Amino acid sequence: MFRFLHTSDWHLGRSLYGQSLIEDQAFALESLLKLIDERKPHALLIAGDVFDRALPPEAAVTLFDWFLNQVARVREVQVFFIPGNHDSRERVGFAASLLRDQRVTIFSKLEHAFEPVKLKGDDGVEAWIYGIPFVEPIEVGQFLDVTEVRTPDHATRLLCRAMIEKKRDARPAVLLCHAFVAGGEVSESEKEIYIGGSSHVSPEVFDGFAYTALGHLHKPQSAGRECVRYSGSLLPYSKSEIGHQKSITEIALAGDGSIKLELHSLQTRRSLRYIEGELKELIEKGMNDAAKHDYVIAGFTDSGAVLDAFARLRSVYPGLLHISRAGGFVPLSLPALQKEREEMSDLELFGEFFRDATGADMNDQEREALIEVLKMAEVTP
Asked: Which of 33, 125, 296, 371 counts the most CB atoms within 10 A of its CB?
């Protein structure tokens, strides 16, 4: 068997509601190192979005440098990774040629997709490792000298077909790819992967590979078939990911291309959870909540105006990240909202503020009182 671990979407350097998650990410990576020590894989595959943005903060780069050293040099485990849509291919691919000799392979250019690495596992089983960096369809068309390559599905299909046609022997092949494969379940924290046109890639595009290690979607899940799979993100990065069982995927690949999967949960520094109720009730429950130091997103259901809600709730939930009225309104897009407000009267603007603050419209008595105040201020309602 050839055994490897599949992970992706670390988003090192990310913040959640202004709270830096770098310490939580470091804790999770330490947990991953323990898993590597326990399972002793032949390789670690990271399917993109190592960083949260193209120019990551210094702490994120330092953390990744430390982790690579621990895996590749200290533990002598081969590492393979690709840049995702959040990463800069140029920055992530720095010193790629030199690092190949240090057990770190970065597929950061399209030509790297045709430079697979052969690895040997147990009992003489060998496999080819391929990687496609995240690129726009037009770049694939230019690279392959094919016109009218406009969709991710077409671009990925052309690349995979060319890679399989040039495959050197019958050994099973593993692919790293960062894409939105049709049928996958999305989360709030995932950035739109392409602008314009369909962003979906069909699962059958990857038919020539024994296993496709996907990145981009944050929920661990298969995509059309068991051998085409998302590992999911390192941590939950939005409210919609609460309840996701974040994990690392372990794959055992046989010489005939068959696979066995096993999911391993990672220990986290803090959980993320959502609480809802009247503010007074939430505060009372928080006083005896054994998990009060978790990261918390709260929705309060009070019908009237609530003052200092965040500060009051954070006094019992130190990890409180965000609080809002449960079932609140959905705002317009910013340009539309700005245009609409420019056309509002002062009475209408205050009415909108009142609704946002209390969750209800002004009644007739409140509206009349406001009109009187506006008249006293010599403002025409």
From this structure: 296
